[in-house]
Amino acid sequence: MAEQSVTRKPYPTDLSDAEWQEIEPLIPKPKTNRGRKRKHPLREILDAIFYLLRAGCAWRMLPHDFPPWKTVYHYFRLWRKDGTWEHINAALRTRLREADGREPEPSAAILDSQSVKTTDVKGVRGYDAGKKVKGRKRHILVDTLGLLLVVVVHAANIQDRDGAKCVLEKARQLFSRLQLIWADGGYAGKLIDWVKGTCNWVLEIVKRPPNVKGFQVLPRRWVVERTFGWLGQYRRLSKDYEVLTETSEAMIYAAMSHLMVRRLTRQVQASGP
To answer: Residue 198 sits in which domain range?
Structure first.
């Protein structure tokens, strides 16, 4: 039986009944019935996490009509450590691909990175001389719909070609159908041979036309840039506020899951019975 949200005024980020029905089966169940009975509904825990992501507040500043922030953070951390956020992201992505008439797994993907500033919290960081940003890089791989496949967060001083290896090594273990990766000129060079030799994929560089000035939408590359735009709606991601890069990655998986569950329920409702 689905959990019911407590009575309070809703926030725009709250899960609807249809969205909760999609995401509830993806939340791990307790391994045992021992221990204290859970006081706060998991739906409220998720609503609080999605509120924090979209509003950009600190854990301690969650509104008081949510469960206590320590409880919310406990579940977020637990789901980071056991891989739940990645599992939710993967399951919703598969549902959306199938709803769009695609295969569950992609055969092509787009790679890119985004440098963001860090704050005064502890943790790895570096200086990206090209973007003039001191902080971290978010390296993401997305499918041709712009849905997140893999994210790896690392210090901003690591070159794109080196950071890409971390992303693609992880993707190699997860996606057996992948054959083609598109990327910009920052990934040209020896990485092309590495991708072919290590992953048996083709890395195709999408170059900007030399005679074109100003903004131009480039084939394939706009897809991953749009994904960064989607993630930019979540103010907690405006900078990297996290001590651990693993937490930064979990934040991105959670934000993408929130985006996807909303899109999925809209598609289901639009298709009708």
So the answer is: 105-238
Determine the pLDDT at residue 206.
86
CATH number at residue 185: 3.30.420.10
C-alpha radius of gyration, the chain, whole number: 20
Long-range (24+ apart) CB contacts under 8 A made by 54-60 are: 54/12, 54/13, 54/233, 54/234, 54/235, 54/236, 54/258, 55/13, 55/235, 55/236, 56/234, 56/235, 56/236, 56/238, 57/236, 58/241
In a domain, residue 4? The reply is: no
The predicted pLDDT at position 212 comes to: 57
| CA dist., res. 234 & res. 246, Å (int) | 18
Sequence-distant (≥ 6) Cβ neighbours of residue 28 within 8 angstroms: 79, 82, 84
Which mean pLDDT values do the consecutive 10-residue runs of the chain (273 residues) have? 64 96 91 70 96 97 96 97 97 96 95 95 92 95 97 96 96 96 92 96 83 59 93 97 97 98 85 62
Please give the pLDDT value at position 1.
39
Q: How many domains does the chain have?
A: 1
* Predicted model pTM: 0.92
Which of 95, 209, 201 has the alpha carbon at shortest distance from 145?
Answer: 95
Residues facing 105 on adjacent strands: none
Contacts 24+ apart (CB under 8 A), 53-56: 53/13, 53/234, 53/235, 53/236, 53/237, 53/251, 53/254, 53/255, 53/258, 54/12, 54/13, 54/233, 54/234, 54/235, 54/236, 54/258, 55/13, 55/235, 55/236, 56/234, 56/235, 56/236, 56/238
